[in-house]
Amino acid sequence: MYTLYKRVSPYLVALSMAFFFLSCTNTDNLEPEPNEVGSLSIEFEHLVGGSPFDLDNEYQRANGETFSVSTLNYYVSNIILSKEDGSTFVVPQEKSYFLIRNHTPETCLITLDSIPADTYTGIAFTIGVDSLRSVSDISKRTGVLDPAQNEGMYWTWNSGYIFFMMEGISSEAPEDPTGTRAFRFHIGGFGGYESATLNNLKDINLSIHHGEGAIVRKEKQPKIHLIVDVLKVLDGLEDVSLEENATVMFNPYSSVIAENYTQLFTLDHIHN
């Protein structure tokens, strides 16, 4: 075996070193230009415990109950991005309503445009549709808020949005007249307009605890990756018996499901 040596010019060495240090410089951390804006995306990845989540797959809880999910939909609204110094950027409300539908993967990745260039280390949002929008004129409720186009996420009999819908089959659910052991969670209630009612609007606040934040620049679109653990709808702050609570809609027990789904979300990491 032979090793070949070649004399290298000191000038070339210096030039190479300068190029190396320049290429390793993280220009993304440079101060943004005045009035610079960019985009930011948020991904909702659904799991069951630590396992991948798929519609109609059967899963088993710690208490022995088995279940599968055929429908998983929920509203995300009123998004606020926070910075390290504690200041925030509130996404304009007209651009801040999204309907996540697990059976439609493209809805599980949302994009926010015209975000001021900065570094964001946290995100807050509401599960549901706020009271003001819920009672506003139908002309102001378009897109995913249009009751005629939101896949049944609206009670016509109750004139209100279903914030969170989860339906499926469980071995422990009572048989319905067709012999199916189905469970149905349709959770809503914005607190009422003329009189107080159930209020199942829930605010979620998440921060990144390690690594850098989401760096928004004109030519750069970071992605905040959220993990959504579907199991916590049943095994959250309170265990939900599918035998005793197979159908939960506009009743007091809906508040238990609502408290549980506040535990679903974890800010896992950020792609810059």
From TrEMBL:
Keywords: Signal. It comes from the Bacteria. Residues 38-249 form the Copper-binding protein MbnP-like domain. It holds the Pfam family MbnP. InterPro entries: MbnP-like_dom. The keyword Acetylation does not apply. It comes from Shiella aurantiaca. This is Copper-binding protein MbnP-like domain-containing protein. Residues 1-25 form the signal peptide. Transmembrane segments: none annotated. The keyword Flavoprotein does not apply.
